[in-house]
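As agreed, record minuted below.
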Amino acid sequence: MNLSSSFATDDGLPFSLEQCRQRLQRASSEQERLKLLCREGLLLMQAGHYEQAIASYSQALQLCPDNADLHHYQAVALENLGRYQQSLAAYDQAIGFSVTPSAQLWSDRGNVLRNLSRYAKALESYEKALLLEPDHVKALCGKGLALMMMGRIKQALASCNLALELDPNHEEAWSSRGAVLLMAHRDQQALADFDKALELQPAFSRVWFNRGVALLRLGKETQAIASVEQALSDSPIRREVWHASAWISYGYALLKLGQFERAIAHFEKALELQPRSYPAALYKLTSLILSGQFFAYATRPISRGKLLRDFGTIIHFLKYRLLFLVGLILLLAQGQGDWAEAARRVVPTLFSGAIIALLVADLWKNKTKLELVWKTYFQSGILTYFRAAAIIVLTLGTYAIADYFAPPFMRWGWANLVFGQPGNIIFQPFNLFSSSMSEAGHWAASVSHLVGAIALQLASVLTLQAPIATQMTESPPANVPYDSLFIIGFWLLLLLGIPFWAKLEERIFRQGANTWKQILIRSTQFGLVHLLAGIPILGGFVLIVPGFLFACRYKYVHDRQLRKTADPLQAREAGVMASTADHAVYNAILVSFVASLFLQQSLS
């Protein structure tokens, strides 16, 4: 940060820390000591010794407590240590002691307010800077970032574009516009802006972090890790508000690559910086489960305490959602009277709309990656379809045999509490679109729920966050063609989304599972996690079978590619793509079967 004052520019002052300290020992007047202390503080800040710089400025302020520049310098040092409340107080003192506060001072104050998430106040500070200097590039950049955090993306881009027009070689302007583009999910454009900023200033740590986030979103985990590592290289010196997020992003990239132990260490580092970070706690818990280390952590006293705190963080973040969910369940299960009956009719409609909205949003997010759909269904080879069909037959056969011997409680899913029977969330829109409740319709519903309970695996976003599917509900007669069009449209929507969800699940449950022990653990986790979708307990255990077979496909292709190329990353990616194809086709066949049952019912 560039500050100007008489202390920084006076001739005859030493330009090394050692010389400055030698001169301080024999200073003959308070004025000379004041100038030397200020120079010492500046030299210490340049070396990254912010605590010592603050001590120097504190001594100088004892000699001259109403000096605005000293308060400004101290505010900068406090900001670099992440002590934003103290920094803000110092900025306010600097403004109070200034006859005419500079645009730079108002802009710097806005940065601290932004770091404190006080975006409206930060915007006011930037506006005051721009009233003094309308072409102040840093204030325009800060204004853009504040507007971005307030959700005013168009205005944010306009502010950053104006900054770039004023100074096309200003790294902060490129960085800020890249951040706004990143917030708008224009990841490729954001990446280009970050690269431009780094051309101008290769040591710009925050840009390295944002670049890593863009690469992570684009599915380039290895490059993302390298970028975030570069961003964190100066973290022992400076403590910025984004450091915890950087450790989370680093850990998330490792999680996606199946490097669970390293991911856990990085999430713990993020929790050291930000103890109540919900994403860090959630991803750490996920990594512990997927790596099979959860019970080891839970039984050790030191790690058990951390684990309990992590659970507390997750529950605290989700408390209102959980209260809403429990209240809704009690309403649907125990409510009496017309209002309760009305709720039972409205909830399925709202729920169906939420599922469709999630599907559309996910497809929109992946609109630039739709080639995965083509590759999965049309380029994976005919053997993929034979394998998927064989896995379906084996899964259904396993379920039939297990169902014959299973005790009654194994047929229970938590959906029974509300709807009287278990069901997979994804079929609720099919249920809603169905227009008749004939005897054949009841049969179709029963079969579809059975197939859904034992076969369909969706991405964690749907299985973990969405509510549960209801049983078939009666609806008034409707025009059959419209019902059929809705069913066909939802079926096509599912077919487009399945490859992306399958790939996500393969990265979580198959990637990195190269030993039979790992395969068994991950396959068990894969099956049981689907109990969260409301399927029966028996269904969760049966899903271990297809999970194991997908893992075998992954291992076969992974090992073959590793022998061929000796490249672990390439082998891992080849294995994921192979198991993704089998998994996606398997789901597509089952979804098509269920859709045909509902379509047949609609047309009958």
User: Anything to note?
Assistant: The two ends are 74 Å apart (CA to CA). Residues 1-96 form a domain with the Serine Threonine Protein Phosphatase 5, Tetratricopeptide repeat fold (CATH 1.25.40.10). The chain has a mean pLDDT of 83.
